[in-house]
Please model this.
Amino acid sequence: MAALNVGLIGCGGIARQVHIEVLTRLPNVELVALAEPDPQRRDWASRRAPTSLAFTGYEELLQVPNLDAVVICLPNALHAEATVAALQRGKHVYLEKPLATSLDEARCVLAAWRRAGVVGMIGFNFRSSWLYQTARRHLQANTLGELVGARSIFSTPARPLPAWKQTRRSGGGVLLDLASHHVDLVSYVFGQDVRAVFASLRSQRSEGDSAVLQLWLADGLPVQSLYSLNAVDEDRIEIYGLAGKLAVSRYPSLGVEITRPTDNFRLVHVKRLWRGVQSLRHSPRWLSKLRAPGHEPSYGTALARFVAAARARQPASPDFEDGYRSLAVVEAAEESARTGRIVSVADFADAAYPR
Model:
């Protein structure tokens, strides 16, 4: 089977940290074209991928002969129009989240994707992490017994933001940036959709840069989440059940941590320290994290899955419908923050999960 000819649309931060490195390393992939309007970024990308054609806009890139697929890493407000353009030309698309900046735009993407009949994969790469796959298996195996609730935090330190990330109108804000990842991850790990949301937003350095969400899943399970662009690097999920607690902290963890109700606190602390020592000495996963682009192996795993699906013309997960579901929760959260009430996701997003 021939290699997949891929074009990269957008050579900003995430593309420079992750996608160019991954696409130039993956087998069965030829990175044949780049599109980036900024000349410095375009020149940098061309040096990293010297055999690729370089263009200022995605319209030119989409006309490259024998182009099979595109990876889109543009500012959020451009996601929908670039994706629709690629789908109309019959290209497989890997789109960094979010799917769009509004549900109206997202519906246009879904309609174009269904007409095209190609692979459409959304960049919720955390689904490809062994940590969250292991957590999902524990819940499927009922390791924690009847569930009580869950909580999560996803935050980053305060950093200079490009202009487009500073206002919601241009696609910024913590809900699209960080919360969209966890909304999808919660649905994936628990195997069910978010039913309702109550939210509060705070603007300190930019519009909507911190948020607190109370989610209710389809079976009524509550999930509390904090998201911020102004704190520290932290990405953690804790799940509580009658038979114990499961915790995953994406940055330091090399596996899930299970705590039982009968565990002695001091013994738990000693075991945690010992696991840390053992992992440093023996686990190859530390090396995989250190060597991976962006120090996150799931980026490469997700893109490899996309390539395999596109070459085989088989469905890929998470797909654009998963992106739509996450965006529906984001918009419901924004409505909740505006009105101060609990918002039903299905009621707020009319035809929230169109078929």
Summary: Confidence is low (pLDDT under 50) at residues 351-355. The CA atoms of residues 267 and 273 lie 10 Å apart. The first helix runs from residue 13 to 25.
